[in-house]
Amino acid sequence: MRVTIKDVAQAANVSVSTVSRVLSNKENFFASKTADHVRKVAADLGYQRNAYAADLASHQSDVLAVVISATKSNFADEIIAGIHDVATKNGNSVMILYAGENNPTLQDKAIKTVIERDVMGVLIVALELGDESLSSLKTSGIPHIFLSTAAKENLGPFIASDDHAIGYEATKYLIEHGHHKIGLVGMDEQSFVGTQRMTGYREAMAEYGLAVNEDWLVPGYFTFEDGETAMAHFGKQPEVTAIIANSDLTAIGVIDQARDYGLEVPAQLSVMSIDGTKLTRIFRPTITSVTQDFFQIGRAGCAALLNDDNEPIQSKFLPIKIVERNSTRQL
Amino acid sequence: MRVTIKDVAQAANVSVSTVSRVLSNKENFFASKTADHVRKVAADLGYQRNAYAADLASHQSDVLAVVISATKSNFADEIIAGIHDVATKNGNSVMILYAGENNPTLQDKAIKTVIERDVMGVLIVALELGDESLSSLKTSGIPHIFLSTAAKENLGPFIASDDHAIGYEATKYLIEHGHHKIGLVGMDEQSFVGTQRMTGYREAMAEYGLAVNEDWLVPGYFTFEDGETAMAHFGKQPEVTAIIANSDLTAIGVIDQARDYGLEVPAQLSVMSIDGTKLTRIFRPTITSVTQDFFQIGRAGCAALLNDDNEPIQSKFLPIKIVERNSTRQL
DNA sequence: AACAATAACACAAACGTTTGCGTATACTTG
DNA sequence: CAAGTATACGCAAACGTTTGTGTTATTGTT
């Protein structure tokens, strides 16, 4: 039997309500002398609060849920770190739930869990939620926000980078460095992220009056292997002089495969990645990237959720920047 | 107002107990006809169970907690995937809590959370728990297990790789490939993992009658930067012909720095890593490693916790293997 | 036909908190 | 000094479930 508030009350010769108020620091409800006494007794008895009971009685939980894809990408850590950074300062607990990879069953289960636990908010990270899951989440009324993810307007509030801008800026950078034939690797045509980036790419090309060969667009996801196979598609004598990869891992796949073909990066082929995680700095050559600030995305998302003025949460884009490293060169 | 079991009972014209039993599938307590009816009404009303109330009343939760360091290492993902694999099949929820990096405050908070929530078990991943946290966990009586972590005997049950064997096997491999002067990089002398690996290293060296120069042992942790600075310590003309790094990232740090010194790996220096995560396959040269099966560690740990024959949990080592890649050569 | 046994359900207590309200006591104020 | 007002605390209901123990019908047995 665990020691409860009741035991503490009895031992301290006060009522349970007093113990409750002391232990949860409801100011102006007790004399500091009583408080000290109660706290001491509680400590002596080894009292541990039962969070379930508390949440049940108070109708509010202090836990934030992060629903995340069992992502092959590697920026989730940074987002989570950002979330923890502000959650911790605010005294909230964070629970993380994996929702698999395009796995509606697991998604439903994760969403069901957050609803059953009536968490105070949920952050959906790098995940396009299925319609089913999304609508249960919406009807539950639990505040939620999408982080770094497909942000079709009707989805709900999001904090992310502007994927259109990402595609546009990357392309523009390469064009301005003399590249006219630019490959785009790993974009998922089914996803919002992918199509946005592709549109940005096309816009930049058009703006500079450059034709796009559809053969330069090799779809895929965010994996290393997608980079490898895409480069295999381009072959040993690629028509393109530069490639934009959908993630750091994908870029590495491209570079590895290029190397296997005897192609020097960046001497014979420039490769640029999207994300700019630590991988771009430890890999050789270091990889020029469109860098997103994932830590800030996490921070901003958490802050938005915690911000309790009851205005609806504002969606926003966080700035991206291009970081020049050694995988690209001026033509 | 959320719809409760009471509302369902009223709408279905049965008692709350019946609804409860139907919805939680307590066999032999109701007619299947009633059950169908109740389930339909519940669905129509959009009933969502309140997990807090249920856990409170039944004194048992179905959530498994994973306490993890905000790890700079990168194998945690695989362990978590393994945990999820068996937890999901078993119908358990998993919540992940970050406990920072050697941060007693965060550790305490994480442990406090799992105790307050009275989870059914906790998996401590790659984390040496402070005495304070450990003893609260122990007195709480919550089943727990350490995964891939410092496993001093008195800590409690663990599932991990045998760090002594890791140090020993890595060293032996290099010796048998003709290396006599072998560096050991990134071992933390304060940690059990580090000292075990060092002991294994020394034993292998002694076994082959090789002297150890203390200068070859460069302490550190598991980071990329530790690899870089260690290699800087060895300098442009290292005395050692091979280096064992404490993690894949550390190995990459070593190789990058070596390359900056104009040293070819493996032509002029062999580098071997411990862990064998995906990094060793995407980096060039691919990295020979002592490979741990983190996914299985996760699976085994979770299974051990869930296994409810009430014998105490058995500690065990999972096998390691050496995977030869391109960062080492025969001398 | 009488009775026991079982199936199907309802009642109500319990889980450990929080919190609105009530009530003494002590302290102001005119 | 009476009346009003804080202050400090206790009482008890409520939160939404689970579950042990009744309480009826229904079925089976002799």
From TrEMBL, chains A, B:
Keywords: DNA-binding, Transcription, Transcription regulation. SUPFAM superfamilies: lambda repressor-like DNA-binding domains, Periplasmic binding protein-like I. CDD domains: HTH_LacI. Pfam families: LacI, Peripla_BP_3. It comes from the Bacteria. Signal peptide: none annotated. One of its GO terms (molecular function) is transcription cis-regulatory region binding. Residues 3-58 form the HTH lacI-type domain. This is LacI family transcriptional regulator.
